[in-house]
Amino acid sequence: MHNSRSSNSSSIDLSGYNSVFCDSTQAIEWAYRHGLPKESIIRSSAPAVLWEGNRSIQNIEERWSIDELERFQGTIQKFSEDIFDAAIAVKNVDRNRALAVSQASVLFQRILFKAACLKEDDFTDKRLFIYVDGEGGPSGNGMNSPWDQLLSSNPLFSVIKYNFNNDDWSVLNTKGISKWKRYMLAGLETVVYRLAIKFMKYIPGKLFKGDVLVFHENELVIETAAALALRGMRILELKKPASVKSVVNKNNDYSLIINALMPIMRERVNQWVSISAVETTMQMFKNYIDSHLLHFDQLIFQWDQSIIINKNTKSFLLIGASGNIKGQSLSTVCQKKGIPIIAAQHGLTVGISKLHGELSSGFDNSVADIVLVHNKATKKILSENYFAKSKPYIVGASSRHARVGRKKHANNSAIPIVYISTNLYRGNMGFIMSSKTDYSQARDEQKLILSVLSKLPHRVRYKIYPDDNRRFPDPDPVFKDAILADNIDFFSDKLDMRYLLEEHRILVTSQSTSTLSWPVMTGKPVIFINWKNNCPLTDDAHSSLSKGLFVFDDNDVGFHDKLRDFLSQPIEEIERLWELKRVYRKDMMVEFFSTYDSGAGARSANIILEKYF
Asked: DSSP characters for 64-131?
């Protein structure tokens, strides 16, 4: 960082700056107190900073039109395929390393997106970046755009660090949920799984058919592992070992791989950034891939040291998220040790999202030998995946998903309607899965609150999305409108929505994310808002869900009025209309949610045992 200094010092004088990058209202107020002229231009992407419409504050992402962002996002999948092909063509590069490089190149698109926001004079004129330092969650501080790296060539560029005050941040938890309620949702299979993990490691392996190594559990992993335990398999938890960074050195393959990727990346960079940003962005890309490859090799070393198997015992890995650098490096070690990998689907996104192509290099079947999926739609998408290594098997959704449907009604609910918000900003860490800027997305959410939710004759709970990682320093500005509405109960606890579903009669949500599966599995009326430019449904999913659920498209004429009128009906009337759709929901559930009503764990265990034992 140029001229980086710690904040909160009385000696700081910012009077000489008239162009500033900053994403925190608190930091801006601090800057004004330290001499920053009120007429200085402040450029930000944070909704809270842009909210009041101050003329001196500009949206740095304003250069992105919806059409441009659609083109940018829509070309990422083909770009990732080209990167993979270039990497795997390099001598001695295996598919897992090529996958890791492809995925890293996709992740780098977040930086390219930011680089494209810069203008030519940002590389020559005096600029100040106020870097916000504070608690960011499990992934660390991700609240700042990489302006310090992108503008490092500008001799008149300075960075100053502001220590964020009132810095409380929480993550997803089960506070206030009784153990009994958690058990009733988790089920007996979870008890079996927890006992197996706790005690089986002390029992000699020769007493079992084989070993199941479990990494990154999810609902289907737990249920499958429990079924395998009851069939004579030993369940062992595989923990990622402590980092041993010093023992791995870069090898010569790094430069060969990077040289193969550079022409592909340069062509893309040239399309989107200003002339002065090209070389800096390319150097950042080179460093990013270099660092990613080193991390990949460090993980391989760590996995190789930590996975010790008995050669006389059949072992395999059961994993909940295989399509990332941990899974890719783990796959490399498992192949070397002769350990098959079985991946279990986490959520719905792959099967229902129109924009899933960006994620395809990280699909489970790019790494795993078997993939256990919930439904037909996911199987179809995975089967068509460019990076596919294996075939998916349909086993249905977990029993936990089925259990949320036990209590169909909460007839005496004081808050009959819940809006399950999926409003999660891109910030600096999210995928591009939207053709709107964060500010535009915030305004869409605000309009939904002001024009629909706050106008209903019913009480409504507004449940925030419980993000573990902080995208921006300030609270979401749309919260204020939800808090001020007379009929809205603002729920800000970082609690998983599955524990609250039984308290409401009507469930409203949006975006083609995994969140949708829980409301739908309750059997209660679900109103789904399909944002055309933000994680929209595939055409097939839209057609089916429109018959089985109540789907409202934001690009329809009178969208807000139609949604408000529908939700203003008596709750009993909405429930009556919901029952009329029952006949269509069966096909919808089989195709897009859970092909089978129950037995996912046992079905998965049968597939695994039949194939490997």
From this structure: --HHHHHHHHHTHHHHHHHHHHHHHTSTT--HHHHHHHHHHHHHTHHHHHHHTT--GGGGTS-EEEEE
